[in-house]
Amino acid sequence: MEEFVPILFLIAIAEMIISGSWRSFYFETGIPLYRKSIPLPFPPKLSSTALSEHFEKGMFAPILFKQISVHQVAFREALFSFHWIAYTPVMHGLIRYKDGELQVIGWANWFAPVFVIFFAVAGSGVAGHWVFDWIFVVFPIALFALLYSVQAKRFNKIYAVVLRQSEISNRN
Description:
about 50% helix; elongated; about 170 residues
C-alpha cells in the first residue's frame, strides 16, 4: 500500500495547483455534496470582491471568490492561511445562475474521497482483527462527515449572503 502514498501526495499537489489557478473546469463539475437553489427571474449582480471581503475575517480560513464567467462565481478556502480553527476542506464551490435559478453548489475536492478510500483500504487487514478493520473504515468516514458539517455551515452562510445580494440587485 505504501506505493499509493506518492499518488495521494500527487493528487493533493495537483488539486492545489488547479484550485489555486482557478481553472473553471474544476469549479464547474464534480461530485456534488452540497446544493441549495432558489428560482430567480433575473440573473443577480454578484460581486466576487464583495463576497471575498465578507468572508475574509473570522476564526476559519478566508473564503475566496472569483468570477469565472458571466453568471458563475467560483469559491474556495484560502490555500495557505493560519487561523484559530484549521481544517482540511472537503469541498470547493460554485455560485451560478442557470435556467432561471440561483444555485450554490459544493463539489467534492479530489483529495477527500481518495483519502477516505486509501485509508480504509490501507488499514484493513493491518491489525489482524475485525474490530480494527472497522475502525479503519469508520474513522475516515466520520472524519469526512465532521469536516463536511463544518463546511456545510459555511456554505449555508454563503448561500444566505448571495441570496441577500441577489434580492438587493433585483430590486434595483
